[in-house]
Amino acid sequence: YSSTNWDVDGAYKAVEALVDFFQPPGTLGTKVDELSQFGPHIHVKDDVIDALTGRIQTLGELRSDVDLQAASAQPIVFAFEVSNEKGMADVLDRIAAALGDNLQMREFLDVKIYEAEIPNFQGGAPQSMGVTVARGQLFFATDVELLEGYLRDEGVDEPLAESSDYRRVASYIP
Fold it and tell me: How far is CA 93 from CA 13, 31, 89, 98, in A?
């Protein structure tokens, strides 16, 4: 497990400044606007970049039923916190509609999971990757079973900082 915070807006502005350094000012914004008129009509800045809060969690698990030497990808889940879960789910719906049969959708615990196969260039069986929006996160998983496990887990009833055991231990820390 790891967690990081990324200044998504700052990164976008840096890319915009770099493009505008070599092109007339406003070029990136104009091209992003133009691209949003094609395909699934997704505006990269408004629909994706602005919806990301910058908090990114990487979750992995070593499972005994997965041979890492033969797997096409290590079982891992990336969770990007989003500020507008419904809006991001709409973005996924539009991408899925544009991809047609290349992306399969199914319901799991009242959550839409979009699945596709990851080819295995090591000669083994392909893996099923999954993408979904749930719990305020945009999840990308190289292992759908791992993703299902995180969606199934209801978490703890009480945050650590509020538990009596933690408070007792923390009282000894200056």
Answer: 27, 23, 6, 9
CA angle 84, 58, 107 (to 5 degrees): 55
CA distance 119 to 117: 6
For residue 58, give the nearest of 37, 32, 42, 80 by alpha carbon. 80
Element (H, E) at 167: helix 164-170
- pLDDT one digit per residue (tens) for the chain, 174 residues: 788 999 999 999 999 999 999 999 999 999 999 999 998 999 999 999 999 999 999 987 766 666 666 655 677 899 999 999 999 999 999 999 888 888 888 999 889 999 988 777 766 777 788 999 999 999 999 888 888 888 887 665 566 667 777 788 888 887
